[in-house]
Amino acid sequence: MKLGVRFVLLLALLGAGAAAMGALSLSSDAQHLTQRMLDAHSERSPRIELLERTVRFADGSEATLRLAEGFDIAVAAEELGKARFMTMSPDGRLFVADMVDYNLSNEGRLLILDDFNEETRQFESEISYLTGLRGPHNVAFYTDEAGNDWLYLTLTEHLLRYPYRVGDTEPSGEAEIIYSFPNTQSEGAEGVVWHITRTALFAGDTLYVSVGSGCNVCEEAPGEDRAVILAMNPDGTEARTYAEGIKNAVGLLWVDGGLWATENGPDHLGADAPDDTLFRIEEGAHYGWPYCYELDGEKHADTSLEWQREPLDCSRVPPSFAAFEPHAAPLGFAHFGSDAHPHLKDSFLVALQGSWVVEYGAGYQLMRVSLEDGATDVFLDGFLSEERERIGRPVHILPLERDSFLMTDDYNGRLYYIFAS
């Protein structure tokens, strides 16, 4: 049992008291243990109080959000389309992928934002670095042994790389396709196009790429790069499956010598299952999809379909590090180290894009996750009104300093700047 779960159970036990449990009483040792756990949790993760913050947009409208005490929020850029993941270039410029829509049009863009004004808290320049893209999602930079810089761009069908030079306003060379991904829905998939984003991340000289499933729930064709995280050389050679059974790992980070990933669970089990998750990824592990899902810290077999292959033993599926409510849709996330603001120290901040079915009302938040025990706290919310009106859908978080970061919203094409006030 995780420490965070034990902590919750002890709180529940104390809260019930004699009124609910009759003769039940805790021993002196148990009381002392509980108090030590409460004190330790308080030291690791200072309580977050949410305060209202009003933001105003270029069209004259405004919204009231709830943000961690001690922080403020500003709109740093607007009209960014379906703004997805951000990356800071070697020369300190912000690259943002605009996917345009979920219909895989060929109108996607890669934008450069620059000249951040500290007084207005806005970027004053915007350049279209690339246009005519199909499903752009994120950028990664890499410097090879010869000292050459490369820009890697994930599209739905391809992983591209371009030579990169400081100050470029357009690629300084032709695109090289270094890897190709499945480009159609899996057999049996119906309705929307499933999981069109790919995420690339460098850790040293290894390139990791996540590829979602081609359906909501199905058995993928053997050998297809679906529901996997791949590892390969910087030129795309020697690609291998690093981990599998991950339905849709959108966010990737390398932290404390290991790979971490968010996962979006399937949507066919109703409003209350399964939990969405955050994993520390083990090489060679299978994370359960489509045969298993997680709910309330337990792994369960999915019996909604009649499987053609031998189902996975769900008891052997690695547990998540942290879990979020069903359909919360965790996407990008950021790591803050021991020198960060107390409300961010030694934690992840996870963007919960929010439920595709708006009536579910899940997500639409930034959630803090303690690196100590996976305990979660809301850091920012209010992107879904009580009337179920979407004000924004958080996608990605990029730290700037120990107490400030950027957040993309692909619903209204906005970029937010959150900072200690």
UniProtKB/TrEMBL annotation:
<feature type="domain" description="Pyrroloquinoline quinone-dependent pyranose dehydrogenase beta-propeller">
    <location>
        <begin position="66"/>
        <end position="372"/>
    </location>
</feature>
<dbReference type="InterPro" id="IPR011041">
    <property type="entry name" value="Quinoprot_gluc/sorb_DH_b-prop"/>
</dbReference>
<dbReference type="InterPro" id="IPR011042">
    <property type="entry name" value="6-blade_b-propeller_TolB-like"/>
</dbReference>
<dbReference type="InterPro" id="IPR054539">
    <property type="entry name" value="Beta-prop_PDH"/>
</dbReference>
<protein>
    <submittedName>
        <fullName>Glucose/sorbosone dehydrogenase</fullName>
    </submittedName>
</protein>
<dbReference type="Pfam" id="PF22807">
    <property type="entry name" value="TrAA12"/>
</dbReference>
